[in-house]
Amino acid sequence: MLEVITYGNEILEEKAEPVTAFDDQLAETVAQMFEAMKRDHGIGLAAPQVALKKRLFITDVEGDKKRVFINPEIIMTSPEVSEYEEGCLSFPGLYFVVKRPASVTIQAYNEKGKPFTLDADGLLARVILHEYDHLEGKLFIDRIPPMRRERALLHYRRLVKM
């Protein structure tokens, strides 16, 4: 069973490596990631958040189907941005308004190795961009102004008594 790791684990700030095998083990990993995400009440989860340094994330956004993104590449983001309060399973209890592009075009592979391209906007675009950041070793707190980021980290450390 996979467990979500929290801030402080250095894998969260490292760039993930490409998935090279589309096999039964990958399918099992994806299934376990969906279980972990559901258990922690998330709508997106990246492999680094379960201590796997792989370019893989999943989404389960209301109004959309469950999705698997393997070796994703962002093709385009909109110049329009939106602000929305985000949380992160690796920062339980911490929420901040984050500016992100309003829409995204992404190419990836599904768990069977089939390539696809997806245009997304709204909450799905935000979740895709948030989870993609995890594959790049970037955290949602990296997207808030430095002073707010320091206060957020101080608050988080108190929250979890780091």
Written description of the protein model:
With 162 residues, the chain is α+β, with helices and mostly antiparallel strands. The chain has a single domain, classed as Peptide Deformylase (Alpha-Beta Complex). It contains three helices and seven strands. The strands form two sheets. Strands 1-2-3-6-7 form a five-stranded antiparallel beta sheet. A two-stranded antiparallel ribbon has the order 4-5. A hairpin with a 7-residue loop joins strand 4 and strand 5. The two termini are 25 Å apart.
Task: Explain the layout of strands and helices.
Layout: H1 24-39, E1 44-46, E2 56-59, E3 67-77, E4 81-87, E5 95-101, E6 103-109, E7 115-121, H2 122-135, H3 146-160
Antiparallel strand pairs: 1-2, 2-3, 3-6, 4-5, 6-7
Q: Strand order, biggest sheet?
A: 1-2-3-6-7
Tally of separate helices: 3
Low-confidence stretches: none
How many strands, what sense, and barrel or not for the largest sheet? 5 strands, antiparallel
Write down the secondary-structure element order.
HEEEEEEEHH
CATH superfamily: Peptide deformylase
Tally of distinct domains: 1
How much of the sequence lies in strands comes to 25-35%
By CATH, the topology is Peptide Deformylase
What overall geometry do the principal axes of the alpha carbons give? globular
Q: Which class in CATH terms?
A: Alpha Beta
What helical percentage do the residues reach? Answer: 25-40%
* CATH architectural label: Alpha-Beta Complex
In angstroms, what separates the terminal alpha carbons? 25 Å
